[in-house]
Amino acid sequence: MPLRKHYTPLEVIAGYPVRPGICTINGATPLGDAVNFTVHSAHATACSVVLFPRMSQTPLAVIPIPRSYRIGDTWSIMIFGIDIYEVEYCYRLCGPYDPSRGLLFDPKRNVLDPYVKAVTGQSVWGTRTGKEYHGRIVADHFDWGRFEQPQIPFSDLVIYEMHVRGFTMDPSSGVYHPGTFAAVIEKIPYLKELGINAVELMPVFEFDELADERIVDGRQLLNYWGYNTTCFFAPNTSYASQAEYNREGDELKMLIRTLNENGIQVFLDVVFNHTSEGNEDGPAFSFKGLDNSVYYMLTPDGHYFNFSGCGNTMNCNHPVVQQFILDCLRYWVVEYRVDGFRFDLASILDRSEDGQPMKDPPLLKMLAYDPILSGVKLIAEAWDAGGLYQVGRFPSWKRWAEWNGRYRDDMRCFLKGDAGAAWNAVQRMLGSLDIYPPDIRGKNASVNFLTCHDGFTLHDLYAYNEKHNESNGWDNTDGANDNHSWNCGAEGETQDREVRSLRMRMMKNAFTALLCSRGATMFLAGDEFANTQGGNNNAYCQDNPISWLDWTRLSAYGELHDLVRDLIAFRKAHPILRHDTPPCSFGFPCTSIHNCLPWHDAFDADTRCIGILYAGQDDSGQDDAVFVGINAYWESVPMELPGLPAGWRWEAERLL
After folding, report:
1. Is the separation of the CB atoms in 469 and 478 below 8 Å?
2. Sheet with strand 623-631: strands edge to edge
3. N or C: which end of the chain has fewer CB within 10 A?
């Protein structure tokens, strides 16, 4: 008969039997007939658990945690007799109020638990309930069964960056539950047929889409992208097709499991650089009320550093915050079986408590060597809004990969015919070894991309010379000005057949170059059928057809879609495109660089024609060679292919 720990109440407070809690179990955790509540605060002098009836703002009980239950900076209590299906909770903390020292305690303020697994207060997308955030006590009932995650080498990844809501919100998506995790499940056959093997979900943690809500030209603008975290342990309630109450997360878990069962890994875009509490003018509902001076990076006079561009900056290299971030990532790996993370503005994780870049940042090293995270991919957006740009220099311990911003910029310049761009383009396609030396960064450092959520779509990259963000309400001052784009002769939509034909060729060229490059590959959802945002390169606030994928374009641009599908299949069929393989029998090196003449690699400012020869063996041990030739000049240029041994001949892949 198994032994089971039995807990006995010691006293009654506010009508509830209680006893000291287990300090090492964070958040609110059901333990038999009790719930264990644990919260940490270095500067609080008292702490209470506040219980609410479900859907109510009126407290059911306020239960002070006896000082004798406190160990160090940790307040922990076990409360008996709680119906977890009918109760919500938060904390109230007493302590000094001294903004100049970064201390903002208010004994009347209800504070959301940072470790809470589900949040109430904003369950209907875009609708303000007028209710404050409360936590729900989650009972995990999800059955993973005999679940095994797909093991996909980094160089084999074809990543599809997706906004959960925007992917299916347009009526043209034809799903039953638009804008939800369930709707993405409905689209898995499409993803599988396309051939991608990883999805990178833009933020799915609970966030406040109503932050900075505005009306511009009669249209409601929201914080649509979701880079505005409210709670790091809870999935976004409004992405669920049905209310889950205290079982929040089942639908997301089902999505992850179903994607994995179809050979598709799941990466989460995580935002540990700031929160939705903002600066001095923002709300105080969680970290500010819990331990403001610990969780946020503050100036000597108590104001907020703003390296995120969003009002505040998380104090990521304070030991307490380091532990919080590690606990969070472990939770998503253990409880949700997530395959990897993309860290938004990751250079902030490299800054010390006074904002200076660190030589050996402890948080990044901790994540690189953590045994629970050892099997997941760690991908950094290696810059921040404070000007710290670390592409090629992000601390890695051969574990961290990067969004290769140099790939994006150099390839965009080359593909539109800029002078002097050919040599850099070759280096990017060969894996950017000049930026990521394998002996320092390992072989899995570069995530190649031409487009992502932040910027033009691929269609718009070749339809607009300038950004057109007027609908954002900032007089077109927001968004990047340097896009390396080209409108092919007409700004925006046009009926000119020559311009439209040229744009199609440019999109095909872009996908061909991307999918024939060494390193992991990523592209923005909808680019495969020329989705457009009308020239908006910063559609963070556009919860409308500007950002939603228009699935009617799948038929209108079926030729492009089919090319992308075939290119992905071609990439999978030729491992020499992805990584070095055993050498081929006829003596070609694994990779070689050519211009218009074989074995000539002299490039100058006027060179716009490049050739890359990949050679080696395929998965069956047979000799294989692929020559990728790209002419970015505006006129035809003859190109001579390298000679082959007797019995071999080149065959053109009719993908275009």
Report:
1. yes
2. 591-594, 609-617, 623-631
3. N
Q: Which tokens hold the place of 636? A: 């035809």
User: Count of alpha carbons within 13 Å of 105, Cβ hemisphere only?
Assistant: 20
| CA–CA dist 129, 268 (Å, integer) | 28
Is residue 27 assigned to a domain?
yes
With beta carbons less than 8 A apart as the criterion, state whether 200 and 522 touch.
yes
Distance of CA 645 to the CA centre of its chain: 47
* Residue 27 · residue 77 · CB < 8 Å: no
CATH number for the domain that contains residue 119: 2.60.40.10
Run of H or E residues at 160: strand 158-162
578 token code pair: 């992805």
State which amino acid sits at residue 109: R
Look at residue 140 in the predicted model and tell me its pLDDT. Answer: 79
Please report whether residue 157 resides in a domain: no
State residue 104 phi and psi, 5-degree precision.
-130, 35
Q: What share of the chain is helix, strand, coil (3-state, %, to 5)?
A: 25, 20, 55
- At 3 the pLDDT is 44
Ranges of residues in the chain with a pLDDT under 70 are 1-5, 244-248, 654-656
Considering the entire predicted model, what is its pTM?
0.96
| Domain boundaries, position 61 | 11-136
What's the total number of domains in the chain? 1
Of 370, 362, 371, 316, the residue nearest 343 (C-alpha): 316
Rounding to the nearest 10 degrees, give the CA dihedral for residues 224, 226, 227, 232: 160
Give catalytic residues, as residue numbers.
344, 381
- What is the chain's alpha carbon radius of gyration, rounded to the nearest angstrom? 27
Cα distance between residue 182 and residue 184, in whole Å: 5
The Cα–Cα gap between 455 and 403 comes to 14
What was the pLDDT predicted at 27?
A: 96
Residue 205: inside a domain: no
52 forms beta bridges with 88
- 57 in Cβ contact with 132 (< 8 Å): yes
Within a domain: residue 345?
A: no
